[in-house]
Amino acid sequence: IFGALKGAADGGLDIPHSEKRFPGYDRDSKEYDADMHRERIFGGHVGEYMEYLEEEDNTKYQAQFAAYLENDVEADGLEELYESVHEKIR
């Protein structure tokens, strides 16, 4: 939801929002880390989970990411995949 909101706001839609709700906002320091938010939008957290699951439970990894594996999508290639998808949407 936050990725869609950010995309709509970046696209020029006037949607009242606060960066405090986005991933990357630190409530303690009251600062927003746009790079952390970008990493999340481009699947960094998915890649980390892929790597974790591959090491911890390979059977579950192969079941969970079967479509990715069939298409030769690896954890370190997710950002490029997400970028190409975003480009096609535009």
* CA distance, first residue to last residue: 18 Å
- Return the structural class: mainly alpha
Along the chain, the helix and strand elements come as HEEHHHHH
Beta-strand percent range: under 5%
Radius of gyration: 16 Å
Instruction: Let me know the average pLDDT.
Output: 89
Main beta sheet: strand number and arrangement?
2 strands, antiparallel
Arrangement of strands in the largest sheet: 1-2
Strands, count: 2
Brief synopsis:
This protein is 60% helix and 4% strand.
Which keywords apply here?
90 residues, mainly alpha, two-stranded antiparallel sheet, 2 strands, 60% helix, 4% strand
Can you characterise this structure?
Helix content is about 60%, strand content about 5%. The protein is built from 6 helices and 2 strands; from the N terminus they run H-E-E-H-H-H-H-H. A hairpin with a 4-residue loop joins strand 1 (about 25) and strand 2 (about 30). The radius of gyration is 16 Å and the shape is globular. The mean pLDDT is about 90.
SSE layout and pairings?
Elements: H1 2-10, E1 25-26, E2 31-32, H2 34-41, H3 44-56, H4 58-64, H5 66-70, H6 78-89
Antiparallel strand pairs: 1-2
Helix pairs in contact: 3-4
